[in-house]
Amino acid sequence: MRIAAKPTEQEITEGPQAVSFQIANGNARQRCILQTELPTKALAQKYLLANWPVIEKMARDALAAGNLEDGQIKLVIA
Length: 78
Hints:
Layout: H1 9-14, E1 18-25, E2 28-35, H2 41-50, H3 52-65, E3 73-76
Parallel strand pairs: 2-3
Antiparallel strand pairs: 1-2
């Protein structure tokens, strides 16, 4: 079993991390951002992958409702 590395000082001072992903929207792609409270990009990416079905549904629901900010979907996980 591998033990995850502790966050670096820079990662701690940067604070919460966001990860970007895309979903299909017909023949186009829709850019999405997932804002997390996690201290590192690696943990935020791991969270995205582990919870993909729920996050994808949230993004599709936001797209259907027209909830776009600056042309992208912004999701926040606390």
